[in-house]
Specification:
alpha/beta, five-stranded parallel sheet, 17% strand
């Protein structure tokens, strides 16, 4: 069994100053890659989050997680680095605590900040580690939302 809980593929245009995952870069259980046209990640049987997929469930426990990190317009490009047959799953409709500022209106209602999605997905996969949110400014507000959904 791998000690890596999640693989994160970040789009190169992601603003690191605003990136909610950047404080987690030194964590050994997370593996970070920067997207490029040549990057290929074997994703067979891995969970990849997608808002239009079936909900993540107990049947998914034990599978690796791949998180695509970038704004919504980059998601198709980020998916292009995945090889094999990933398993697309969505998260429960917990509202984001992150204040959105998207002039293009591309954020789906179900969208979460990347660190929120990582925390919630790992929690549902059996790795409840609130320290993932320790440097997230909207931590308390998000955890209250998660508690309201009894997750």
């Amino acid at each position: 069994m791998s000690s890596i809980l999640a693989t994160i593929v970040r789009h190169p245009d992601e603003n690191l100053a605003k990136c909610t995952l950047e404080p987690l870069r030194s964590r050994k259980e997370l593996s970070f890659f920067q997207f490029s046209a040549s990057l290929k990640i074997e994703a067979s049987d891995a969970i990849v989050l997608s808002v239009d997929a079936p909900l993540i469930s107990e049947a998914d426990v034990g599978r690796p997680l791949i998180l695509l990190d970038g704004n919504w317009k980059h998601v198709p490009k980020l998916k292009s680095c995945l090889t094999g047959t990933p398993i697309y799953r969505s998260l429960p409709a917990v509202p984001t605590a992150y204040p959105r500022r998207n002039d293009e209106g591309l954020d789906p209602q179900e969208g979460l900040a990347s660190v929120e999605a990582l925390y919630l997905a790992l929690k549902l996969l059996g790795h409840n580690d609130a320290s993932l949110l320790s440097q997230y400014h909207w931590r308390e507000q998000f955890l209250k939302s998660v508690a309201l959904f009894k997750i």
